[in-house]
């Protein structure tokens, strides 16, 4: 998604069976009353002006099809007004497939019209249990048609009122529900309207709305597997992506909170140990360990020897512009300057591939396992029978570590159905975008890049993808607690010192950030919404 271009969406053409037409909206600029026209044989045929849904093409502003625009707007009286003029005659009497609607011919077995009427009334009486003479069948049919027209009229009235209110959240939710129910006409109208309301350079909800809309469009087009293409943005060079990640780290305390709380738990658990082995299941740039090495260097009685095993991930590898040796060199240089004995062990594999032999365990060392913003990327039992999420916890338990740290998003985007997941994503990321708005001016030239490359990808993945393609699978702490207990761990409450350190950190940020401790777990939030949860566990 390039901010210099208007969004283009590739839509899908949908074949609509004629019998389904009545369940969708009536066409633009057309009376809802049918009109009678004379047919060749003198009988009356009914015609309606309805959208040509046989080739109804949604969201295709870049297609080479003729008349591809299907954007809808609304007239002052509330009726939908399309940029296309569709007519689709429904001559039921003369359709080659509708022979049963032809006038009764003389070749019928029953020649007497009175006898035919009598037989029909007798059959109706037997089936309905009433005298059909008491029923005005024409009135019933007219009533049914009127009810359908009334429903559609109310539907468009509701949409007009909703658009008039200009509630972006309401429109996004309604669009998500239309996609879920496969209501393509409503979806097309809403997307056209939403494109006029969202902006990557606007208010927090407008910016988030732009990425939520991209997720909906990608889901509609079934392009979740091509998530980068769905975002329509050039992959930044690795130094640029690293720069964007660093900016996000500095302007929002979420990552710092996670790192500081985890480091505090590790330092507390290792205060009497002389040989420390830290296993980081997603080491990224290794930034978390800079402060810990500095802290352990000043430990009374001298620093311990530190060994760090770093497990890689593709995004971090790209941002670094190289392999894990870059991380090792950076940490080794710092350790030397602090006179801390240091060793780095690189495990250039993804979390799903990690086995015991990859961890380089040595006798006599105290082990700390770090799961910082990593486990939500691991598929669980709802995705893969191997359930790597729980497998890694069992693997960590087999190491008999002194401490295991967990830092995760406090949200549920894992097993929630699509609509609840969409609402959860909107609520969760709206808090993050609001907090960014406080720290970084909207006109800041790098803010769009930060949000686009560091946050939008996650948003679109959550909304557009299913199955193994959906990798951003957050879970609430209650679920993580169940997993850790099932793996054999016991909660290890974070110390008051860690809590006090984070409170000091937050003093340099907006006072809308909140810090809460519940049952030994720390929650960092924005106003009344918890964003990140941090905790520690022991065997």
From TrEMBL:
GO terms for molecular function: DNA-binding transcription factor activity; sequence-specific DNA binding. Residues 245-310 are annotated as: VHIID. A motif (VHIID) lies at residues 276-280. Keywords: Transcription, Transcription regulation. The keyword Iron does not apply. Residues 60-88 are annotated as: Disordered. It holds the Pfam family GRAS. Residues 464-538 are annotated as: SAW. GO terms for cellular component: nucleus. Residues 326-358 are annotated as: Leucine repeat II (LRII). Residues 61-75 have a biased composition (Low complexity). Residues 166-226 are annotated as: Leucine repeat I (LRI). InterPro entries: TF_GRAS (IPR005202). The keyword GTP-binding does not apply. One of its GO terms (biological process) is regulation of DNA-templated transcription. It comes from the Eukaryota. PANTHER family: OSJNBA0084A10.13 PROTEIN-RELATED (PTHR31636). Belongs to the GRAS family. This is Scarecrow-like transcription factor PAT1.
């Amino acid at each position: 998604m390039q901010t210099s271009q208007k969004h283009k969406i590739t839509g899908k053409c949908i074949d609509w069976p004629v019998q389904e037409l009545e369940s969708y909206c009536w066409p633009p600029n057309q009376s809802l009353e049918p009109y009678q026209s004379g047919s060749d044989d003198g009988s009356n045929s009914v015609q309606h002006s309805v959208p040509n849904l046989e080739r109804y093409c949604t969201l295709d502003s870049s297609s080479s099809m003729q008349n591809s625009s299907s954007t809808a707007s609304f007239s002052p009286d509330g009726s939908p007004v399309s940029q296309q003029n569709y007519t689709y005659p429904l001559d039921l009497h003369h359709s080659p497939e509708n022979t049963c609607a032809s006038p009764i011919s003389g070749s019928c077995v029953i020649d007497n019209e009175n006898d035919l009427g009598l037989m029909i009334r007798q059959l109706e009486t037997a089936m309905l249990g009433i005298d059909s003479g008491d029923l005005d069948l024409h009135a019933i049919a007219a009533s049914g048609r009127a009810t359908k027209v009334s429903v559609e009229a109310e539907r468009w009235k509701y949409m007009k009122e909703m658009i008039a209110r200009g509630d972006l959240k309401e429109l996004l939710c309604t669009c998500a529900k239309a996609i879920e129910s496969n209501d393509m006409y409503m979806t097309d109208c809403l997307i056209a309207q939403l494109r006029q309301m969202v902006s990557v350079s606007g208010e927090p909800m407008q910016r988030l709305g732009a990425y939520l809309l991209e997720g909906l469009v990608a889901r509609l087009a079934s392009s979740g597997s091509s998530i980068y293409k769905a975002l329509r943005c050039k992959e930044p060079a690795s130094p640029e992506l690293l720069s964007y990640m660093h900016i996000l780290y500095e302007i929002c305390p979420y990552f710092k909170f996670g790192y500081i709380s985890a480091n505090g738990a590790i330092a507390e658990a290792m205060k009497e140990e002389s040989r420390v082995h830290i296993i980081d299941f997603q080491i990224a740039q290794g930034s978390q360990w800079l402060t810990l090495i500095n802290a352990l260097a000043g430990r009374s009685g001298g620093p311990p020897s530190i060994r760090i095993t770093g497990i890689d991930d593709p995004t971090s590898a790209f941002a670094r512009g190289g392999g894990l040796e870059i991380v090792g060199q950076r940490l080794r240089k710092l350790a030397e300057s602090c006179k801390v004995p240091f060793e780095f062990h690189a495990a250039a594999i993804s979390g799903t591939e990690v086995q015991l032999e990859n961890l380089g365990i040595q006798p006599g060392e105290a082990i700390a396992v770090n799961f910082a913003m990593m486990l939500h990327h691991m598929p669980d039992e709802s995705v893969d029978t191997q359930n790597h999420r729980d497998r890694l916890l069992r693997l960590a338990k087999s190491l008999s570590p002194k401490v295991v740290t967990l830092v995760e998003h406090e949200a549920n985007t894992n097993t929630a159905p699509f609509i609840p997941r969409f609402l959860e994503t909107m609520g969760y990321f709206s808090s993050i975008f609001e907090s960014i708005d406080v720290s970084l001016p909207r006109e800041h030239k790098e803010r769009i890049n930060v949000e686009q490359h560091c946050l939008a990808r996650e948003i679109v993945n959550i909304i557009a993808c299913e199955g193994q393609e959906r990798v951003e699978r957050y879970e609430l702490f209650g679920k993580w607690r169940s997993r850790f207990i099932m793996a054999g761990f016991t909660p290890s409450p974070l110390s008051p010192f860690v809590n006090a350190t984070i409170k000091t950190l937050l003093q340099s940020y907006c006072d809308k950030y909140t810090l809460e401790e519940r049952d030994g777990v720390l929650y960092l939030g924005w106003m009344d919404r918890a964003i990140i949860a941090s905790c520690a566990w022991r065997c």
